[in-house]
Design a protein that fits this description.
Blueprint: H1 2-18, H2 22-33, H3 38-44, H4 51-90, H5 109-123, E1 127-128, E2 134-135, H6 137-140, E3 166-167, H7 175-189, E4 193-202, E5 214-224, H8 229-244, E6 250-254, E7 260-269, E8 286-288, E9 292-295, H9 297-302, E10 311-318, H10 319-327, H11 333-336, H12 340-343
Parallel strand pairs: 1-4
Antiparallel strand pairs: 2-3, 4-5, 5-10, 6-7, 7-8, 7-9, 9-10
Helix pairs in contact: 1-4, 2-4, 3-4, 5-8, 5-10
The structure holds 3,4-dihydroxyphenylalanine (DAH).
Residues 170, 172, 219, 257, 260, 263, 291-293, 314-316 line the site of 3,4-dihydroxyphenylalanine (DAH).
């Protein structure tokens, strides 16, 4: 029987070498290992052997069976890889996800106004800071003079993580970290803290033409000796006239924010309706663009700065609103809608 086994092995090798496709390999599997295949036949023919011979022959037939199985699998894989390669090579080269009439990309309107603001503030000596979107309750509220259960929190419900962190509701959440980052320079060398920090904010908000659950702000702070409201007004006016490249009608009115005292609402005349009233400005003719104020002593103290010695101003510019005003976008939801024909019309600066 050993002769039969080695004859079969030879035969199998020859046939396998001649296989031209995965289908040929499958046929060989049936021929050799199938129910009535030749290797299986050998096993069936062992009935007349002595128990000792049965053991050795059985071992040899099993070895053959395993070898045949392994070689068939290897060959099959070779063919499958080859077929896949052939198929891939035959495909036309194109990106199935690319939109029809693909154009070069463009900057988002919010990115455009953000960059303009950054340029203006950089030229006035401000640093541009980055900050995370997930913050702690301390960063977003406590360090800003908004203790737990303060009613000001009602206006800023947001999305909470299981670990108690939250998606920041305001870029003010970075204030404490910025004070701590630059405090030593201020105290030792007298270098004023001048920083802006743009970022994405989130609130649990019902959406309409002027409210979104995701929006962009740009916070700015300046801390030094003898900073007053006139410094604040100067920087706000300079920034707006640079960004809009024309004189904008603004009004300053008192506003309450726990982290500033006094606090203001800086409104601009709605540029969409010219002040007549429209859904974009809640029919008031004015748009709250940049709440601001003098940094509250508690907030400075929490950042490690002595409020008896230093004062400062802070503002929270609504970048999303600014983009709407600058580009005449009537509905805030269009900015997050992702429709390229809406978003790509404001820049000549293609990517
Ligand atoms: N963080 C405030 C908000 O989102 C806006 C704000 C108000 C920021 C006054 C400031 C400020 O820096 O001084 O409602």
């Amino acid at each position: 029987m050993f002769a039969q086994i080695s004859e079969l092995r030879e035969k199998f090798r020859e046939k396998l070498a001649g296989a031209k496709s995965a289908a040929d390999v499958e046929n060989l599997r049936v021929t050799f290992l199938g129910k009535s295949g030749s290797v299986t036949g050998l096993l069936k023919n062992m009935g007349g052997l002595s128990p000792e011979d049965k053991k050795t022959v059985g071992q040899a037939v099993n070895d053959l069976k395993n070898k045949v199985g392994e070689e068939l699998a290897r060959k099959l894989q070779e063919f499958q890889e080859l077929e896949l390669k052939r198929e891939l090579e035959s495909l036309p080269v194109f990106d199935v996800a690319a939109p029809k009439d693909l154009q070069r990309g463009s900057y988002h309107p919010i990115t455009l106004v953000q960059r303009q603001c950054e340029t203006v503030f950089r030229s006035m000596g401000f640093t541009v800071e980055d900050y995370s979107e997930i913050v702690t309750d301390y960063e977003c509220f406590e360090s800003l003079n908004i203790p737990k259960f303060h009613p000001a929190r009602d206006m800023q419900d947001t999305y909470y993580l299981d670990n108690g962190q939250l998606l920041k509701t305001q870029t003010s959440a970075a204030q404490n970290a910025i004070y701590r980052k630059y405090r030593d320079r201020l105290l030792k060398d007298g270098t004023p803290i001048k920083a802006i920090f743009p970022g994405r904010c989130f609130r649990n908000e019902s959406t309409d033409a002027c409210h979104e659950n995701t929006f962009f702000q740009m916070e700015g702070v300046m801390v030094d000796k003898n900073i007053s409201i006139s410094n604040l007004i100067f920087f706000m006016k300079t920034m707006l006239s640079e960004v809009f490249q024309r004189d904008i009608k603004v009004r300053l009115r008192p506003g309450f924010f726990p982290f500033v005292e006094p606090g203001f609402e800086l409104d601009i005349n709605c540029l969409i309706c010219g002040g007549a009233g429209c859904p974009s400005c809640k029919h008031s003719g004015w748009l709250e663009l940049c709440p601001c104020g003098m940094i509250h002593p508690n907030v400075l103290r929490e950042g490690g700065i002595d409020p008896e010695e230093y004062t400062g101003f802070a503002f929270g510019l609504g970048l999303t609103r600014l983009a709407m005003m600058k580009y005449g976008v009537k509905d805030i939801r269009d900015l997050n809608g992702g429709l390229l024909q809406n978003l790509d019309q404001f820049t000549d600066d293609r990517l």
